Amino acid sequence: MSLAYRRIVLKLSGEVLAGNQGFGIHPDVFLGIAEQIRDAASIGTQIGIVIGGGNIIRGISAASRGMDRATADYMGMMASVMNSVALQDALEKLDLHTRVCSALEIKEVAEPYIRRRAERHLEKGRIVIFAGGTGNPYFTTDTAAALRAAEVHADAVLKATKVDGVYSADPEKDRSAVRYETLSYDTVIERRLGFMDQSAVGLCRDNGLPIVVFDVTVPGNVRKVVAGEKIGTTVSK
Q1: Half-sphere exposure of 183 (CA within 13 A, CB side)
Q2: How far apart are CA 72 and CA 164, in angstroms?
Q3: Does residue 14 register a pLDDT over 90?
Q4: In this predicted model, which residue has the larger pLDDT, 49 or 170?
Q5: pLDDT one-digit tens code per residue, 112-145
Q6: Which residues, 6+ apart, have CB-to-CB distance to 174 below 8 Å?
Q7: How many percent of the chain have pLDDT more than 90?
Q8: Residue spans of alpha helices (H) in 106-169
Q9: H or E element, residue 166
Q10: How far apart (Å, rounded) are the C-alpha atoms in residues 210 and 48?
Q11: Residue 7 phi/psi, 5° resolution?
């Protein structure tokens, strides 16, 4: 089968994984995401995943309430590791071989992130979950996704959200909001479209990595994107 993207990094926000409950770990949501990943892998896609920790704690939000920003960000990275282990469990229940590669050293639950080792896992068809963000405070997991995608020579970053693409305004607040099918990196940065961290968009631009923003709550969408169907919004040159 011809694939639009042979190797991808899928960016999952913690908020998406929380489901309708809005916080915490929702096993049914994790299983649904795992099934979509299985379907995409079944057609030959090599899949890396970066997960946020917003369903447990968001560093920026905690810092805005008085917590030290670096401390809050490290807590967010640890939340990302928790989500990664939960997703690994869901994937392995579907008989998929996975590895959690963490930027934070937690040997008991994850192997340390080493770029060449991660690439080897992908080549062997294993699902690689990049946990712990970049391992540094002040960087979002969006930036971590762009960084890991560049490092492992991915073909695209897939930004999985609850919305079916990028809009000119918040579609829940503005009925006249228009969904874009395509955007350039520079347009996203100039208009400060907030679907992704600006530094992450810049990193993708500098490395020629397309970004596909799509609704992951619709079953089958991950497979459709990698197969080349026009789903969501594509950001490229």
Answers
A1: 26
A2: 30
A3: no
A4: 49
A5: 999 999 999 999 999 999 999 999 999 999 999 9
A6: none
A7: 79
A8: 115-123, 141-151
A9: strand 166-167
A10: 15
A11: -130, 125
- Tokens read off for 149: 């995608």
Question: What does the pLDDT look like over 203-220, one tens digit per residue?
Answer: 999 999 999 999 999 999
Helix axis angle, 141-151 relative to 115-123, nearest 10°? Answer: 70
CB atoms within 10 A of CB 131: 33
Flag whether pLDDT at 20 surpasses 90: no
Tracing tokens 């008989």 back to the chain, one arrives at: 95
User: Could you give the C-alpha distances from 168 to 165, 201, 232, in angstroms and in order?
Assistant: 10, 17, 13
With b meaning 16 or more CB within 10 Å and e meaning fewer, what string describes 132-168? Answer: bbbbebebbbbbbbbbbbbbbebbbbbbbbebbbbbe
Q: What gap in Å lies between CA 14 and CA 9, rounded to an integer?
A: 16
Superfamily covering domain 7-232: Acetylglutamate kinase-like (3.40.1160.10)
Residue the block writes with tokens 């997960």? 51
What pLDDT, on the 0 to 100 scale, is given for residue 55? 83
Task: Give the Cα separation of 230 and 99 in Å (integer).
Answer: 30
